[in-house]
Design goal:
225 residues; 8-stranded antiparallel beta barrel; elongated; 15% helix; mainly beta
């Protein structure tokens, strides 16, 4: 947790530095800094082997910087801690369970498109996202004897995350309530991962092992000027 706190502190300093640069070199209409938090619902895309899954719940929180220069358009950069992963559905073995948590630091670079007035706005955020795997954990009662039976696919349960750098496309929308210099947002998003977490050469078990995540979050923004 201390390392995560240090990373967030560095991110905050970088955002404030960017704010200073913008104020010195560029005219602006709105600059805001925010705190966000919410929940995720995740699963994985595995190919060619299909793994039966249900959505796995997790947490997400972070900081955001939004810069609006043009009417109806701006940019938004965030620094988030996000829990992803998957939860397997073992229909023929109801007494067994397996889920795996994947923890990421993520940086989305988003186009912010909004409509409305100074009190109420709707908006769409869309853009690329990069992430880095920092830790993971498993929750299971499957034993070595169960694995040895060969009754179901278990390779994905024991492989290490060898590709820690993740990337993909993020999109979503929501509503924003504005009170003076303060704003409160509620937003839903979908992340489509383009990278794989496991080796994907021809000799490997999976040619695709990518993240898919739905998230719902609330954000508090404060206008810096």
């Amino acid at each position: 947790m201390r390392n995560t706190f240090n990373i967030f502190s560095i991110a905050l300093l970088l955002m404030m530095s960017a704010n200073s640069i913008f104020s010195q070199t560029t005219s602006y209409k709105e600059r805001t800094f925010g705190l966000r938090g919410g929940m995720t619902m995740s699963k994985m895309t595995f190919k060619p082997t299909t793994i039966a899954q249900e959505m796995k719940n997790g947490l997400a929180f972070g900081v955001a910087y939004r810069y609006i220069e043009e009417k109806h358009f701006g940019i938004q950069v965030e620094f988030n801690y996000t829990q992803r992963g998957w939860k397997e559905t073992l229909e023929d073995y109801p007494e067994l369970y397996f889920d795996r948590t994947l923890n990421y630091i993520e940086v989305p670079f988003l186009s912010h498109i909004y409509f409305g007035n100074n009190k109420f706005r709707g908006f769409i955020n869309l853009g690329p996202q990069i992430g880095y795997f920092i830790s993971g954990s498993k929750n299971t009662n499957i034993t070595e004897a169960d694995i040895s039976s060969g009754a179901y696919e278990t390779a994905q349960q024991n492989l290490d995350v060898s590709k820690k750098l993740d990337y993909g496309i993020l999109g979503g929308g929501g509503i924003e309530l504005r009170f003076g210099k303060h704003s409160f947002l509620v937003e839903g998003r979908y992340y489509f991962g383009l990278g794989d977490i496991f080796p994907n050469d021809k000799k490997d078990e999976f040619e695709t092992s990518s993240n898919q995540t739905i998230s719902v979050a609330a954000t508090y923004f404060f206008r810096l000027k």
